[in-house]
């Protein structure tokens, strides 16, 4: 039985569908395509039949209709019509490519583009539509509504193609446009290099959902459907997943099966960026509880690999619960597959052993895992509690509350401690063993005093655990070269290398611009996660920027992170006139969930 249509509430649902199979100036370097029109007609039908869109609010531009002028006018018209609370879906199927960047915002010097029907004309009057233009159009839409969904089933990398079967079949990628593009409009954009998501199209933006056919260095394939006809692989399997989705399914839920279907057939990883936990075509978020994916199942050894390691607080001996893919609430046993025991912990992944009576093949890839029982071991922060006379009641409250944390342990009398909690009439202070303040004291009259102190101590514990993660026996120990440079000026992509001071520290003044460059000096592709551990005990994920992002770093390739306004902190913590930030690099041979 086909699932019923999903109930829609509030606002008008509008869509723009663009497909170009036939190009006016087609030739060896701009071949015609097949399947793009199928993509958009099938998607429009699905949106109207199941998701509350109406044909009167849908615009289709196909082949000769999809000129540069027509696409621009249709997008601007859609923006003008859109009101607060509306839902907007925009779909493009056709060639993707590149052209020379004239704004200075692309690290590789090339803009990503989509190709209208009349582009690449001999008179050099019509050019591709660049990602810079599209970003401005998207920003204008987001000023009207925050429920915007984009689907681009094409690819644009200089090394990628969209292909079907044999190499002689046309692909959904055109060679970069060799012509000099029109000059940038005065004041149109900043010249700063912009950090893009894994698809390579846009900067990170949690106010929209963007889906792309593949990474910016992969092939985007066309799929021959069993029922006949060609479609983009992403579009075809996305529609299948949307058609069978539950009424409360999120974009993350839907895309999980899309990724599995496409990646199992092609060397292609569809990308989704932005508001992943938003229910399909709704403004409200789903309240997804935190979890980690099962990334590998070793049936022979009864092991599962999860995307959580020491950086996430995982410990050998801890118990985890495994749930079906797409599970969002983990307090219902009916959704639980089984439990497992952590037997080996790496930096950002762990191995867990399944019970003897559980079939390993019953645990699918992308199953979701949560920690059930933590084995604290010796990793807990040792906390000494002391109080001034008259503060016994507050002390007793802390003695009752803190042992409930799996990250903390109250010390016995005379035992060494990692942190001291001093209870005074005016405030509660957290103190290093040498007597220095760890952070600003907590006012004695603060609400939820015990939980506030506990959360601060847990932040210290997690900070120290992550800081001390090491894997000296890894074959990737020397794979990454890391260099810090003082920018010649804010926004610069190079500068003078910072020389370590005595003790190995690199010193910069507050708000002084600098950049961090890391290069793969190994022989194989690696995946890098960078964490910043700041002096206020916070841990930030600097790279990759997006949750679902696993960008590969090929041998000899580099990536730079810029700090145009200096350090991560806007001001130094508490009363210090200097502070130390730490950067922690995790280098793996396979993509894995990041620690933050």
Structural features, described:
With about 600 residues, the protein is of the alpha+beta class. The chain has 4 domains: about 15-275, 3-Layer(aba) Sandwich (Rossmann fold), CATH 3.40.50.1460; about 290-375, Thrombin, subunit H, CATH 2.40.10.410; about 380-465, 3-Layer(aba) Sandwich (Rossmann fold), CATH 3.40.50.800; about 480-590, Immunoglobulin-like. About 15% of the residues lie in helices and about 25% in strands. It is built from 7 helices and 30 strands. It has helices at about 35-50, 70-80, 130-140, 235-245, 250-265, 390-400, 450-465, and strands at about 15-20, 60, 85-95, 95-100, 110-115, 130, 150-155, 210, 220-225, 230, 270-275, 290-300, 305, 320-325, 335-345, 350-355, 370-375, 380-385, 410, 420-425, 425-430, 440-445, 480-485, 495, 515-520, 525-535, 540-545, 550-555, 560-565, 580-590. A 6-stranded mixed β-sheet has the order 2-1-3-7-8-11, sandwiched between helices. Strands 12-13-16-15-14-17 form a 6-stranded antiparallel beta barrel. Strand 26 and strand 27 form a beta hairpin. Helix 1 packs parallel to helix 4 (about 235-245), helix 4 packs across helix 5 (about 250-265) and helix 6 crosses helix 7 (about 450-465). The longest helix is centred in the last third of the chain and has 19 residues, at about 450-465. The protein is globular. The two termini are about 40 Å apart.
């Amino acid at each position: 039985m086909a699932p019923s249509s999903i109930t829609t509430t509030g606002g008008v649902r509008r869509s723009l569908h663009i497909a170009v199979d036939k190009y006016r100036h087609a030739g060896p370097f701009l071949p015609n395509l097949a399947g793009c029109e199928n993509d958009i007609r099938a998607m429009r039908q699905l949106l109207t039949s199941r998701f509350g869109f109406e044909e009167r609010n849908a615009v289709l531009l196909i082949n000769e209709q999809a000129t540069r002028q027509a696409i621009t006018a249709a997008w601007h018209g859609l923006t003008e019509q859109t009101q607060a609370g509306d839902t907007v879906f925009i779909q493009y199927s056709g060639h993707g490519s590149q052209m020379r960047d004239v704004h200075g915002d692309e690290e590789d010097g090339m803009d990503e583009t989509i190709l209208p029907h009349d582009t690449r004309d001999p008179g050099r009057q019509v050019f591709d539509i660049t990602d810079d233009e599209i970003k401005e159009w998207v920003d204008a839409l987001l000023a009207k509504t925050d429920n915007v969904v984009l689907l681009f089933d094409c690819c644009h990398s200089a090394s990628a193609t969209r292909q079907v079967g044999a190499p002689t079949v046309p692909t959904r990628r055109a060679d970069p446009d060799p012509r000099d593009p029109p000059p940038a409009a005065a004041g149109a954009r900043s010249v700063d290099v912009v950090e893009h998501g894994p698809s390579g199209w846009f900067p990170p933006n949690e106010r929209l959902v963007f889906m792309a056919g593949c990474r910016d260095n992969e092939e985007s394939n066309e799929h021959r459907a069993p029922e006949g006809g060609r479609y983009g692989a992403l579009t075809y399997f996305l529609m299948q997943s949307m058609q069978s989705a539950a009424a409360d399914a999120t974009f993350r839920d839907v895309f999980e099966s899309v990724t599995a279907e496409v990646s199992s057939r092609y060397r292609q990883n569809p990308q989704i960026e932005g508001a992943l936990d938003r229910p399909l075509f709704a403004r409200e978020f789903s309240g997804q509880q935190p979890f980690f994916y099962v990334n590998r199942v070793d049936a022979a050894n009864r092991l599962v690999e999860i995307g959580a390691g020491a950086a996430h607080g995982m410990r050998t001996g801890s118990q985890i619960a495994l749930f079906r893919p797409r599970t969002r609430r983990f307090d219902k046993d009916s959704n639980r597959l089984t439990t497992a025991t952590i037997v080996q912990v790496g930096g950002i992944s762990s191995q867990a052993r399944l019970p003897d009576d559980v079939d390993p093949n019953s645990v699918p890839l992308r199953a979701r895992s949560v920690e059930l029982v933590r084995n604290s071991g010796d990793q807990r922060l040792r906390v000494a509690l002391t109080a001034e006379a008259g503060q016994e009641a507050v002390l007793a409250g802390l003695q009752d509350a803190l042992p409930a944390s799996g990250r903390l342990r109250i010390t016995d009398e005379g035992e060494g401690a990692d942190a001291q909690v001093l209870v005074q009439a005016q405030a509660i202070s957290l103190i290093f063993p040498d007597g220095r303040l760890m952070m600003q004291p907590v006012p004695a009259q603060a609400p939820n005093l015990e939980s506030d102190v506990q959360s601060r101590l847990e932040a210290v514990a997690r900070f120290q655990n992550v800081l001390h993660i090491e894997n000296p026996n890894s074959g990737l120990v020397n794979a990454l070269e890391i260099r810090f440079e003082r920018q010649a000026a804010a926004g610069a992509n190079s500068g003078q290398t910072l020389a370590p001071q005595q003790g190995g520290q690199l010193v910069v003044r507050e708000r002084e611009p600098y950049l961090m460059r890391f290069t793969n000096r190994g022989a194989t592709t690696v995946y890098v996660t960078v964490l910043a551990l700041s002096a206020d005990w916070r841990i930030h994920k600097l790279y990759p920027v997006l949750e679902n992002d696993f960008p590969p770093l090929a041998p000899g390739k580099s990536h730079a992170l810029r700090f145009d306004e200096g350090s991560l902190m806007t001001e130094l913590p508490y009363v210090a006139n200097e502070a130390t930030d730490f950067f922690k690099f995790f280098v793996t041979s396979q993509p894995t969930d990041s620690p933050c």
